Amino acid sequence: MKLFGQFRYIAGEKVLEIEAKGDTAGDVLAALAQAHPELGRAAMSEGDLRPYVSMMVNGKSVKETGGLATRVKEGDDIILFPPMAGG
Amino acid sequence: MTTASPSRPITADLDEYDRKRYARQILIKGIGEEGQRKLKNARIFVAGAGGLGSPVAIYLAVAGFGHITLADLDVVDLSNLNRQILHWDKDVGRPKVESGRDKLMKINEHIEVNVFKGTIDEGNVLDLTAGHDLIVDAVDNFPTRFLLNRASLKHRIPFIHASVWGMEGRMSTFVPGRTPCLECVFPHVPPKEVFPILGATAGVLGALQVTEAVKVVTGVGRTLENRLLVYDGEYMEFHELEIRRDSRCSACCSLEPHGEGGSLRRSV
């Protein structure tokens, strides 16, 4: 999973390898929250993505592909975007 | 709104001065004299005279955009000077639009610069942006971006969005009826924060926004329509993501599709 902005600051890494127990975007996020609790709190609330956080799988927002039920497989390009408001 | 007039009247057509001053960009295939004439007659609304607004306004001015409106509420603060290249030490405490207008008129005294010092709000956003051919987003908050987005949809003029954080930035060009709008892609307001920012990051994104503005006005090349460009300066990478209209978007769901062809509200 590729991280940007403050998520990269929190994780201290640009890319994280996530071992998920299932095959959905939600399973990946659950594994992320377990491995990196602070990052999980920054990106999620009550088991869902925070509304201003974007998750992309292979260049498409999960919002358009089934939300957290979106199927993912090993090697998929997953990006987690924090909000970015600066100008 | 106040106006700084050019040193000579702006004619609709290019004159010999223009042909010489802009000769090197007139050479660009797809711009030419006709494209330069379009830039000269274009009216651009730049919302924000800060980190993004500085390079945006400067590059619009040197490119020969004939009518630039600069809107900002703030005065210059010392902590702005690492990135807001329109403003210098001597400007600390001055309204940003006044400082910006002075520099722009020195950079190119042959254009018209209008300024608005105040808050862009629900009550004035449509009037402020009326009569412009496109809106450039150089603000630092999403509530104002949403107002500008709605104005872009109402006037059916393109909206060139960018935002920055640290050494990263994102941008897209939204064309009403033909692409998603800002709220399709970013429907929620993030929490306010004091964001880190390298001046050069704003420079990169601002220069890209002006590149898009030139393309929208002249028709040269292919704009960022339906794509979100992500700039990662820390690792010097550019990523591109596909973005789509959200049929449930409260801002643009009722908008009729825009025909193919020119992106501009009017012919310039």
Explain how this protein is built.
The complex is a heterodimer of chains A (87) and B (268). Chain A has 87 residues and is of the alpha+beta class. Chain A is 29% helix and 18% strand. Chain A has one domain: Beta-grasp domain (Ubiquitin-like (UB roll), Roll), CATH 3.10.20.30. Chain A contains three helices and six strands, in the order E-H-H-H-E-E-E-E-E. In chain A, strands 1-6-4-5 form a four-stranded mixed sheet. In chain A, strands 2-3 form a two-stranded antiparallel sheet. The model of chain A has no long low-confidence stretch (mean pLDDT 93). Chain B has 268 residues and is an alpha/beta fold. Chain B has helices spanning 16-21, 23-26, 32-41, 53-63, 96-107, 125-129, 142-155, 182-185, 199-218, and strands at residues 2-4, 43-47, 67-72, 112-117, 134-137, 159-165, 168-174, 227-232, 237-242. A nine-stranded mixed sheet of chain B has the order 1-4-3-2-5-6-7-8-9, sandwiched between helices. In chain B, helix 4 packs parallel to helix 5 (96-107). Classes of the chains: A alpha+beta (87), B alpha/beta (268). Chains A and B meet through helix 1 and strand 5 of A and strand 6, strand 7 and strand 9 of B.
From the alpha carbons, calculate the radius of gyration of chain A and give it in angstroms: 12 Å
Strand order of the biggest β-sheet of chain B: 1-4-3-2-5-6-7-8-9
| CATH overall fold name of chain B | Rossmann fold
Rg for CA atoms of chain B: 18 Å
- Written as H for each helix and E for each strand, in order along the chain, the element string of chain B is EHHHEHEHEHEHEEHHEE
Major pleated sheet of chain A:
4 strands, mixed
